[in-house]
UniProtKB/TrEMBL annotation:
Protein name: Membrane-anchored ubiquitin-fold protein
Keywords per UniProt: Cell membrane, Lipoprotein, Membrane, Methylation, Palmitate, Prenylation
Principal localisation: membrane
Key word rRNA-binding present: no
SUPFAM superfamilies: Ubiquitin-like
Subcellular localization(s) per the UniProt record: Cell membrane
CDD domains registered for this protein in UniProt: Ubl_MUBs_plant
Length: 116
């Protein structure tokens, strides 16, 4: 079992200033797992939310966090406050141009049938 020192309390700050959390994670938690948590907890009433983990960027202490890193690897000794809450900023990337074209094409290619 992880000790209290191996736990990190995090809140995710969205671009509109609202927060998800705070929630406690073990230091061994990967950034990819944090992104999955953001996806699962994304407020339903917010528009333009992320669809996949690739749409989410997490920023902590001015650095974009890499999916394969753990919380323990990402913590900055300068910013580490025992018992404090770490705020990570969440950036949602807009769909890539290719994805936008595919979305538009799928909307245009819809078949509508009317039976009278």
């Amino acid at each position: 079992m992880a000790s209290v020192q191996d736990q990190v309390e995090i809140k995710f700050r969205l671009t509109d200033g609202s927060d998800i959390g705070p929630k406690t994670f073990p230091s061994a938690t990967s950034v990819a797992t944090l992104k999955e948590s953001v996806l699962a907890q994304w407020p339903k009433e917010k528009e333009n939310g992320p669809r996949t983990m690739r749409d989410v960027k997490l920023i902590s202490a001015g650095k974009i966090l890499e999916n394969n890193k753990t919380l323990g690897e990402c913590q900055s000794p300068i910013c580490d406050i025992t018992g404090g809450v770490t705020t990570m900023h969440v950036i949602v990337q807009p769909p890539l141009e290719k994805e936008k074209k595919e979305i538009n094409q799928s909307k245009q290619n819809k078949c509508v049938c009317v039976i009278l």
